[in-house]
Amino acid sequence: MASRKGIGVTIAILVGVVAASFLVYLIPEDTTMKITVSDFEKHLDITKEKTSMVSTSVDESFKKLMENKLSPDEYIVVAEVSSSQINSLIIELTNSGATQEWTESYINYIGALKKLNEMITETIVIANLMDNDDNANSINEIIAKIHQLETEY
Q1: At residue 108, what are phi and psi to the nearest 5 degrees?
Q2: Distance (Å, rounded) from C-alpha 2 to C-alpha 25?
Q3: Taking the model in full, what pTM does it have?
Q4: Distance (Å, rounded) from C-alpha 39 to C-alpha 21?
Q5: Model confidence pLDDT, tens digit, residues 4-32
């Protein structure tokens, strides 16, 4: 006859095998975040609203920087956060899986977001140059470039 110890070990092994097999089904294989978009027009409109808010924030902060109401270091923090938000929007649009009829609109808006990001980068350069007073000519050249990027955006 079977001993109690043998039956206990057999049950423990069976419970372990069953638990391990359930874990295979419970643990997800793909843990990457996926964005599912069903209304591409609405998604693009929402993205434009988010972009408008970020752009307005950067513009206001840049004006304060130019009026010496905001320190260059404070502006750089605002601009880097804004740039990160724009990058997130670019990734979101890129990974949205737009249908063929919306692909061109999405590509065009991604290009506009990249121009806005370039513009933000240039304002960060200005903030870094503002620490040195000798760079007035360089700052004026970069401001001209920013205005050009604004028109392209």
Answers
A1: -65, -40
A2: 34
A3: 0.67
A4: 39
A5: 777 888 888 888 888 777 766 667 666 66
